[in-house]
Amino acid sequence: MHRLRVFISRLLGNFRRQTSQHDLEAELSEHLELLTEENIRRGMTLEEARAAAQREFGGIEQTKDAYRDQRGVPFIDSLLVDLRFAFRMLAKGPAFTLVAILTLALGIGATTAVFSVVDRLLFRSLPYTQDDRLVSFGITAPIERDEFVLAAGYVDFRHRPGPFAQIAAMQPGVAKCDVTEQNPARINCAHVEQSFLPTLGVEPILGRNFAPEEDRPNAAPAMILTYALWRNRFGGDPNIIGKIISIDGKPARIAGVLPANFEMPTLNPVDALVPLGLDEDVQRRSSPGVPLRAFARMQPGSTVAEAIVALQPFLEDVLQSAPAPFRKEIHLVVIPLRDRQIRGARLASWVLLGSVFAVLLVACTNIAGLLLARATGRQRELAVRAALGASRGRLFRQGLVESLTLGILGGIAGCWVADLLLKLFVSIAPDGIPRLQQASLDVRVVAFAFAIVLISVALFGVAPALTSPSPEQLCGKEIRATTRSLLRQVLVAGQVAVSLILLTFAGLLLRSLWNLERAPTGMATDKVLIETITLGNYRYPQAAQQIAFFTALEARLSGVPGVTDVAISDSLPPAGQMRSTLLTAVEPEGRPPMPEGTGGPVAWRAVSPKFFSILDIPIVRGRAFEEQDEQPSENPMILDETLARKLFPNEDPVGKRIRLFRNEKPWHTVVGVAADVRNNGVVENSDPQFYLPWKNDSVQNFDGAQILVRTPLNPNAVAAWMREVTKAQDATLPVEIDRMSNRVERLAERPRFNAVLLSLFAAMGVVLAAIGIYGVVGFLVARQTQEIGVRMALGASPQNILGMVLWNIGRWTIVGAAAGILGAWFCASLMSSLLFEVGAHDPLPLVVAALLLFIVAFLAAYLPARRAMRVDPLVALRYE
Fold first, then answer.
1. Would you give the DSSP letter of residue 842?
2. Is 562 left (phi over 0), alpha (psi -120 to 50) or beta?
């Protein structure tokens, strides 16, 4: 030890005076020999002693780098030296490097993948000119959740658009159009005004917009193709403009082709635009006119609040024309177009984005802990470099370059992980998530990944780079870094807290999903097939033709082998886009009208007699429909239990008469009461409803229907037979066949997708936290070897040592769990709208998450703690 002290003194002297590189190398070699001798005295062989000396010292080359840096080497050359040194150090610890890169890859990959999805929802500009000026406007009423305008008032308002620079309307939803030329096909057509594309700021890439004369009643049909239809059906023909194609049996001229990135403001899939052709005189006379979706471009500098104030006269006109019971339930809405498009996905998007940032935070704290432990093990190396003249800034830059190198490698791996995760998201995602199919790792997303790398390096790289060496560390004496140990334990507590919040959120969504998938629908869905058919109006223009088609098809399907029952309905529960009216329009005989208000929506369906038996919907009073009820002269109806209680409280409704829609049509006689079924999805409350017989009333429109078939046989085989039967009746009709059970299961697809993703991120957080705890405990055990030896020499049992190590990490796990419980409790209320029949502060997910995390933390700490139980006191006492 005397020789080592002499050598240290000489090195410290070099810190104050110039020394040649040759002298430095000589003294470094002497230092290595001293370390080798010390290792031999510890019981190592010559080869082991030399290898250990090299590891403890960190090698001669890095010291040469420190020396050359002090002699005025250019910055770029010095930076290259730092990079080479960083790669050498990463190569010396392959296990550390692999764990660190994989940890970063998970954190950066998950964050980048989710950002690539939500970027198009929350941050990226819409594919319209000055999209921040576009709004959707109209009124809301109990019968319709989305804002709309009524044509009777709109046809005059569009000539004096008030606060808007431009306005345009379209028919709600999309219509089915049949291309009846060679290779017939059914496409989605959107009926829009001539001002639609100019309002959105969209220019066709070929051809032109509709001319004003083409957007008039009875004008010659015209259409604008989407880019996909132009490419797929017409082969991208540049001479397509002006050509005539047959749509619904009528010639239509192609006016233009839309850009590839065009999307409807409602995000409905569409293949072509056709003129709306509003007849102003007809709409005024038929007040209130047809409902429309309206969009506008605001004046430059105007706000939504100013637009709402300016539209009050429009609202007053609507209220004056509306029946008195409706007026209190009509509200004016002006909403930015982006908000309208993503209002159903905004909260889920922010929750998922916050979750992956939490995973990234856990990953960064994990890497920070590993780097702090690694920096502690390199204290002697840093002390030697400082003694040779390396400045604090030089050492800080070296540490930061190492962290940045690690971050870039993790970022490259993270982009690969992001690509895999993005493909996974797309494969398991349900239909209807806006712009998910457009998500990709483009330049913008890769730039985000690079920014995440820089943020990550700032999170995990600065603290280790600030390590300050002490001259006493040159002699190999253990210097306890209390502050650094405290920082590592705080990082463990932070990992536990964030992981607990993620686990709690995942538990809430999983429990909500459990409730959702087991929510009663009021009907049986097993062994039921659904065939959806929409007739082309050009081939079946009359109601009699439509009824005849479905009657014949019902008879044909009844003869299919294995089919036990067949029924027809115009819509299906639990979310079948049923028709609806208002409670005030359902008038029981002898009862006064409601004093005020509309009473809310009432759903109704037209069904054939076997509808209730196929879906196993009980008839709790009276009877179901019978064959004679389908005759036009008969006017029966069936109420559900909820509507029966509203209309006839404390009375038997069977035999009572009701007039519908407040018109002069015949009175309907209630023949039965059916049990309630879900008709508004599973999450939303069901509306009261009534049933009318199929083909009973001319108010019904039967151009589309859904045919229910019950069969005990293989549904795939029966579906193939059903297609053949339908094709034999009309080969031009597109047919969709699905299982009723699949239809119900799809209602839970969006919540299932959210739960799966959040559970995946929570699992990542737990795994990363376990790795961090394992690494910290392993480091602490290695640093406390001598202390453990002393304790065991004084009589401590292995169990005492195990308890000491576990308590050392357990107390910080408890601190982190407490912080996580508080964080989860305060943040859970943000998720309340995503939950179904489970409270945001339900204690069960929180308790389960805490228990799971404690088990994982115990296992992660127990494995390295067991090594402490097997320490030989004699070896431990010679450790230093």
1. -
2. left
Q: Which H or E run includes 251? A: strand 250-257
List the Cα angle 536/537/543 in 5-degree steps: 115
Whole-prediction pTM value? 0.75
Phi, psi of 172 (to 5 degrees): -60, 140
| Distance separating alpha carbons of residues 387 and 471, to the nearest angstrom | 7
407: left (phi over 0), alpha (psi -120 to 50) or beta: alpha
CA nearest to 732, candidates 551, 529, 535: 535
The residue with tokens 């540049």 is 238
CA distances for 385 relative to 222, 475, 501, 685, 696, angstroms: 80, 14, 43, 71, 95
Question: How many helices and strands, by DSSP H and E, does the chain display?
Answer: 28, 24
Return all residues near 149 (Cβ < 8 A) that are at least 6 apart: 137, 138, 139, 157, 169, 291, 292, 293, 294
Query: Which tokens sit at 226?
Result: 């989407």
Region of residue 294 (left: phi > 0; alpha: psi -120 to 50; beta: else): beta
Taking the C-alpha atoms of residue 805 and residue 788, their distance in angstroms, rounded to an integer, is 10
Instruction: Give the span between the Cα atoms of 217 and 708, in whole angstroms.
Output: 38
CA-wise closest residue to 746 among 568, 569, 525: 525
For 135, the enclosing helix (H) or strand (E) is strand 134-141
Rounded mean pLDDT for each run of 10 residues along the chain, 880 residues in total = 48 44 51 65 66 60 48 59 76 79 85 86 87 90 80 83 88 84 82 94 94 89 93 90 87 93 90 91 79 91 86 78 70 89 80 84 78 66 63 72 83 88 83 75 84 76 61 50 60 82 85 81 87 81 82 88 89 79 81 67 88 92 88 86 90 89 76 89 82 67 80 88 89 84 81 82 80 71 66 71 75 84 82 78 85 82 70 56
Question: What's 308-341 look like in SS3?
Answer: HHHCHHHHHHHHHHCCHHHHHHCEEEEEEHHHHH
CA–centroid distance for 626 within its chain:
47
Using the structure block, give the residue that is written with the tokens 């320490």: 871
Which of 761, 766, 768, 758 shows the shortest CA–CA distance to 102? 768
Residue 638 burial class via C-beta count within 10 angstroms: exposed 0-12, middle 13-18, buried 19 and up: buried
Give the separation between CA 234 and CA 185, rounded to whole angstroms. 13
Residue 659's H or E segment, with its range, is: strand 657-660
Type and span of the H or E element at 812: helix 798-827
Residue 492 identity: V
Contact 572, 731 (CB under 8 A): no
User: What six digits make up the tokens of 694?
Assistant: 């199929």
For residue 343, give both structure tokens.
Answer: 């209002």
3-state secondary structure (DSSP) of residue 702: coil
Q: How far is CA 19 from CA 7, 63, 394, in A?
A: 15, 13, 19
Q: What residues have CB less than 8 Å from 360, skipping those under 6 apart? A: 107, 108, 110, 111, 452, 456
Q: Which string of DSSP letters, residue by residue, matches 281-295?
A: HHHHHTTT--EEEEE
Instruction: Fill in the amino acid letter for 740.
Output: M
Amino acid residing at 435: R
Instruction: Tell me how far apart the terminal alpha carbons of the chain are, to the nearest angstrom.
Output: 12
CA angle 199, 203, 208 (to 5 degrees): 105
Helix, strand, coil share (%) of the chain residues, nearest 5: 55, 15, 30
Do 101 and 409 form a contact (C-beta atoms < 8 A)? yes
Name every residue whose Cβ is closer than 8 Å to that of residue 720 and which is 6 or more positions away in sequence. Answer: none
| Neighbour-count burial of 664, counting CB atoms closer than 10 A to its CB (0-12 exposed, 13-18 middle, 19+ buried) | exposed
Which 3 state secondary structure label does DSSP give 587? strand
Structure token pair of residue 336: 């930015």
